[in-house]
Here is the input.
Amino acid sequence: MQIHADLTKRATVDSNSLDWVPSPMAGVERRMLERDGAEVARATSLVRYAPGSAFSAHTHALGEEFLVLDGVFSDETGDFAEGMYVRNPPGSRHVPSSAPGATILVKLRQMDPEDGAFVRIDTHDETAWQPGRRGERLLPLFSNTHEEVVMLDWEKGAAFETVSLPGGAEYFVLSGSFTDENGTYGEGCWLRLPAGSTQTITSKTDARVYRKTGHLA
Here is the structure.
Protein backbone atom coordinates (compact mmCIF):
# COMPACT_ATOMS: atom_id res chain seq x y z
CA MET A 1 0.00 0.00 0.00
CA GLN A 2 1.27 3.46 -0.86
CA ILE A 3 -0.28 6.66 0.49
CA HIS A 4 1.75 9.87 0.03
CA ALA A 5 4.76 7.54 -0.09
CA ASP A 6 6.97 9.79 -2.26
CA LEU A 7 8.91 11.79 0.32
CA THR A 8 10.18 14.19 -2.34
CA LYS A 9 6.66 15.60 -2.78
CA ARG A 10 4.61 17.99 -0.66
CA ALA A 11 1.59 16.33 0.94
CA THR A 12 -1.28 17.54 3.10
CA VAL A 13 -4.26 15.70 4.59
CA ASP A 14 -7.20 16.86 6.68
CA SER A 15 -7.48 13.81 8.91
CA ASN A 16 -11.04 14.75 9.86
CA SER A 17 -12.11 13.87 6.30
CA LEU A 18 -10.72 10.31 6.43
CA ASP A 19 -12.66 7.17 7.31
CA TRP A 20 -11.54 5.04 10.22
CA VAL A 21 -10.16 1.77 8.79
CA PRO A 22 -10.18 -1.40 10.92
CA SER A 23 -6.78 -2.83 11.86
CA PRO A 24 -6.12 -6.57 12.27
CA MET A 25 -7.05 -6.21 15.98
CA ALA A 26 -10.67 -5.78 17.06
CA GLY A 27 -11.41 -2.33 18.45
CA VAL A 28 -8.32 -0.68 16.91
CA GLU A 29 -8.86 1.58 13.88
CA ARG A 30 -6.62 3.83 11.78
CA ARG A 31 -6.68 6.94 9.66
CA MET A 32 -3.68 6.67 7.34
CA LEU A 33 -1.81 9.88 6.53
CA GLU A 34 1.21 8.37 4.78
CA ARG A 35 2.15 4.75 4.25
CA ASP A 36 4.69 2.73 2.29
CA GLY A 37 4.19 -1.00 2.79
CA ALA A 38 1.62 -3.58 3.84
CA GLU A 39 0.87 -4.34 7.51
CA VAL A 40 4.56 -3.77 8.29
CA ALA A 41 5.13 -0.33 6.80
CA ARG A 42 6.75 3.03 7.12
CA ALA A 43 3.68 4.90 8.27
CA THR A 44 2.20 8.00 9.85
CA SER A 45 -1.33 7.44 11.13
CA LEU A 46 -3.97 8.32 13.65
CA VAL A 47 -4.80 5.19 15.64
CA ARG A 48 -7.96 4.92 17.74
CA TYR A 49 -8.35 2.35 20.52
CA ALA A 50 -11.87 1.55 21.69
CA PRO A 51 -12.33 1.21 25.48
CA GLY A 52 -10.88 -2.09 26.62
CA SER A 53 -9.08 -2.82 23.36
CA ALA A 54 -5.51 -4.06 22.98
CA PHE A 55 -2.98 -4.90 20.29
CA SER A 56 -0.96 -8.11 20.33
CA ALA A 57 2.69 -8.07 21.42
CA HIS A 58 4.99 -6.76 18.70
CA THR A 59 8.49 -5.44 18.11
CA HIS A 60 9.25 -2.12 16.45
CA ALA A 61 12.25 -2.99 14.28
CA LEU A 62 12.74 0.65 13.23
CA GLY A 63 11.11 2.37 16.17
CA GLU A 64 7.83 4.00 17.12
CA GLU A 65 7.01 7.61 18.00
CA PHE A 66 3.59 8.74 19.19
CA LEU A 67 1.66 11.60 20.75
CA VAL A 68 -1.49 10.88 22.76
CA LEU A 69 -4.30 13.05 21.39
CA ASP A 70 -7.04 11.91 23.78
CA GLY A 71 -7.79 9.25 26.36
CA VAL A 72 -5.13 7.06 28.00
CA PHE A 73 -2.79 4.75 26.09
CA SER A 74 -0.99 2.02 28.07
CA ASP A 75 1.71 -0.57 27.79
CA GLU A 76 4.06 -2.38 30.18
CA THR A 77 6.05 0.82 30.79
CA GLY A 78 3.13 2.96 31.97
CA ASP A 79 -0.11 4.77 31.31
CA PHE A 80 0.16 7.74 28.94
CA ALA A 81 -2.59 10.36 29.15
CA GLU A 82 -3.52 13.01 26.59
CA GLY A 83 -0.52 15.21 25.86
CA MET A 84 2.18 12.57 26.43
CA TYR A 85 4.93 12.27 23.81
CA VAL A 86 6.63 8.85 23.63
CA ARG A 87 9.50 7.34 21.63
CA ASN A 88 10.23 3.61 21.68
CA PRO A 89 13.52 2.97 19.82
CA PRO A 90 14.35 0.33 17.22
CA GLY A 91 14.13 -3.16 18.67
CA SER A 92 11.71 -2.24 21.45
CA ARG A 93 8.72 -4.49 22.13
CA HIS A 94 5.40 -3.91 23.90
CA VAL A 95 1.74 -4.85 24.25
CA PRO A 96 -0.33 -1.66 23.80
CA SER A 97 -3.84 -1.27 25.18
CA SER A 98 -6.33 1.28 26.44
CA ALA A 99 -8.83 0.80 29.26
CA PRO A 100 -10.82 4.03 28.69
CA GLY A 101 -10.01 4.36 24.98
CA ALA A 102 -7.42 6.57 23.28
CA THR A 103 -6.39 8.22 20.04
CA ILE A 104 -2.72 8.65 19.15
CA LEU A 105 -0.71 10.19 16.33
CA VAL A 106 1.88 7.52 15.59
CA LYS A 107 4.92 7.27 13.31
CA LEU A 108 6.40 3.85 12.58
CA ARG A 109 9.71 2.70 11.06
CA GLN A 110 11.16 6.21 10.72
CA MET A 111 14.05 6.19 13.22
CA ASP A 112 17.78 5.87 12.78
CA PRO A 113 18.67 2.21 13.52
CA GLU A 114 21.28 3.47 16.01
CA ASP A 115 18.75 5.51 18.00
CA GLY A 116 18.42 3.87 21.42
CA ALA A 117 16.55 6.58 23.33
CA PHE A 118 13.33 5.93 25.22
CA VAL A 119 11.53 9.28 25.60
CA ARG A 120 8.50 10.20 27.72
CA ILE A 121 7.53 13.89 27.89
CA ASP A 122 4.39 15.46 29.30
CA THR A 123 3.63 18.34 26.93
CA HIS A 124 1.34 19.85 29.58
CA ASP A 125 4.33 20.48 31.87
CA GLU A 126 4.49 24.28 31.64
CA THR A 127 7.96 24.38 33.24
CA ALA A 128 9.46 22.67 30.16
CA TRP A 129 8.28 25.26 27.62
CA GLN A 130 10.74 27.88 26.34
CA PRO A 131 10.42 31.25 24.57
CA GLY A 132 10.99 31.09 20.81
CA ARG A 133 10.59 33.73 18.14
CA ARG A 134 8.28 36.68 18.73
CA GLY A 135 4.77 35.28 19.13
CA GLU A 136 6.05 31.74 19.72
CA ARG A 137 6.98 29.40 22.52
CA LEU A 138 8.35 25.90 22.11
CA LEU A 139 8.78 22.60 23.89
CA PRO A 140 11.74 20.47 22.73
CA LEU A 141 10.74 16.82 22.43
CA PHE A 142 13.73 15.14 20.75
CA SER A 143 16.84 16.03 18.79
CA ASN A 144 19.75 14.19 17.17
CA THR A 145 21.83 14.59 14.02
CA HIS A 146 18.96 13.27 11.87
CA GLU A 147 15.88 15.03 13.20
CA GLU A 148 14.42 17.58 15.58
CA VAL A 149 10.95 17.28 17.12
CA VAL A 150 9.22 20.13 18.96
CA MET A 151 5.79 21.27 20.08
CA LEU A 152 5.04 24.88 19.13
CA ASP A 153 2.53 27.41 20.41
CA TRP A 154 1.86 30.38 18.11
CA GLU A 155 -0.02 33.46 19.25
CA LYS A 156 -2.85 34.95 17.22
CA GLY A 157 -1.26 37.35 14.72
CA ALA A 158 2.15 35.69 14.77
CA ALA A 159 4.14 36.13 11.55
CA PHE A 160 7.58 34.65 10.91
CA GLU A 161 10.30 35.25 8.35
CA THR A 162 10.73 32.78 5.50
CA VAL A 163 12.81 29.78 6.56
CA SER A 164 14.72 27.20 4.54
CA LEU A 165 14.11 23.52 5.30
CA PRO A 166 17.07 21.57 3.93
CA GLY A 167 15.87 18.40 5.64
CA GLY A 168 12.15 18.98 5.10
CA ALA A 169 9.43 19.42 7.70
CA GLU A 170 6.29 17.75 8.94
CA TYR A 171 3.43 19.27 10.96
CA PHE A 172 0.29 18.07 12.73
CA VAL A 173 -2.10 20.75 13.96
CA LEU A 174 -3.38 20.02 17.46
CA SER A 175 -5.48 23.16 17.86
CA GLY A 176 -6.13 26.42 16.03
CA SER A 177 -4.70 26.93 12.55
CA PHE A 178 -1.77 28.38 10.64
CA THR A 179 -1.13 29.55 7.09
CA ASP A 180 1.79 29.42 4.67
CA GLU A 181 2.17 30.37 1.01
CA ASN A 182 0.30 27.25 -0.10
CA GLY A 183 -2.70 27.13 2.20
CA THR A 184 -4.27 27.15 5.65
CA TYR A 185 -4.13 24.16 7.99
CA GLY A 186 -6.66 23.68 10.78
CA GLU A 187 -7.00 21.30 13.69
CA GLY A 188 -6.35 17.73 12.57
CA CYS A 189 -4.38 18.69 9.44
CA TRP A 190 -1.12 16.95 8.58
CA LEU A 191 1.43 18.64 6.32
CA ARG A 192 4.73 17.36 4.89
CA LEU A 193 7.23 19.54 3.05
CA PRO A 194 10.11 17.82 1.21
CA ALA A 195 13.79 18.50 1.70
CA GLY A 196 14.84 21.81 0.15
CA SER A 197 11.52 23.58 0.76
CA THR A 198 11.09 27.12 2.00
CA GLN A 199 8.13 28.28 4.08
CA THR A 200 6.63 31.49 5.44
CA ILE A 201 4.20 30.98 8.33
CA THR A 202 1.53 33.25 9.81
CA SER A 203 -1.18 32.44 12.32
CA LYS A 204 -4.51 34.28 12.46
CA THR A 205 -5.51 32.26 15.54
CA ASP A 206 -3.70 30.80 18.51
CA ALA A 207 -2.29 27.47 17.39
CA ARG A 208 -0.51 24.45 18.82
CA VAL A 209 1.39 22.20 16.39
CA TYR A 210 3.69 19.19 16.46
CA ARG A 211 6.67 19.72 14.12
CA LYS A 212 9.46 17.42 12.97
CA THR A 213 12.32 18.70 10.81
CA GLY A 214 15.45 17.27 9.19
CA HIS A 215 14.22 13.70 8.77
CA LEU A 216 13.42 13.97 5.05
CA ALA A 217 16.95 14.82 3.88
About this structure: The longest strand covers residues 64-75. DSSP finds no helices and 25 strands in the chain. The chain has two domains: 19-122, 127-213.
